[in-house]
Structure prediction request, 349 residues.
Amino acid sequence: MARWRRLTSVAGIATGVAAAGIGGVIAAEKIAVGRMRLGQDPAAGEPFGQLLGRPVEVSANDGVLLHAEIAGPDDAPLTVVFCHGYCLSQDVWHYQWLSLRDDIRLVRWDQRGHGRSGVGDRAHVSIDQLGADLAAVLAATVPADQPVVLVGHSMGGMTIMALADQQPELFGSKVVGVVLISTAAFHVDATSWLPPPLRPAVRLAGPGLVRGTAGGKRAALVERIRAAGGDLAFLTTRLMAFGGDDVSPTVVDFLERVIRATPIEVVADFYVALLELDERPALATLGRVPVVVITGTRDRLIPAVKGAALVAAIPGARLVQVPDAGHAIILERPDAVTHEIMGVVKEAR
Prediction:
């Protein structure tokens, strides 16, 4: 009996220490987030997700319905088409949509499985399919005689590269300019933000782990955990997506909600698609038109060196590095991004 009491006492102490440790982490999270929220927030009250355009439903070549929106004057000399990134939606182009919609014809769309677009069959989840989806969006939303400037962030930039590989004849005729933001043409390493000793193990286990999670009861459990959000989700989004110390808490909250809205099955399938990425054969085609590559110097997901590699491989491309900006540069430094888009538009005109 005495031994049982001693063991129980030890177990109780260990449990108490573990609980205290977890409690300390949670308390630290709350303190950190609380401090961030107490600072100045210039984006407070910004109507994220509320700037709607004229809706268009686009049928992809496999029948999936893609949601697109149009804004701006229809008699504009050209159209700018925005392609968003992995786990995001067309709403992340908030600042560019707000700044440009009065003067330029704009189109933005949700990639399959993201935002308000349909999901489709898992067999059709690939970057090449996204390139075909973009071709369908162009055909459905842009007049036949109107030129286009394509703007892509992260996976959206890869979508543009896939289109260039599939339909090179469009570049220099229909497509007259390209802006590539926080993106790469090959070897996208989703573990680049981890400490070096952990990367090999995560690379090995990652695809199976993510795919295994994306089904049945485990998927439902993950979705419930994701739906809870909270301080940890806020801190993770801030760390992974932003580089500067002055990022708005409202912007972080908005991006975290967009990411959380992407179904876990879509997250898993496109994670595998990104591992298989190689769009280097398309880069010479992009060089037929003016190309600007924008990177943030603190991008933890696609390091700035990837942007420099793109510029080296695309004839005539120009590199713009934004100091202290992270992966979500379109939200963190929107003025710099909009300025470069306008520069390509003017050059294309």
About this structure: The chain has one domain: 39-349. DSSP finds 13 helices and eight strands in the chain. Residues 2-38 form the longest helix (37 residues). Residues 39-349 form a domain with the Rossmann fold fold (CATH 3.40.50.1820).
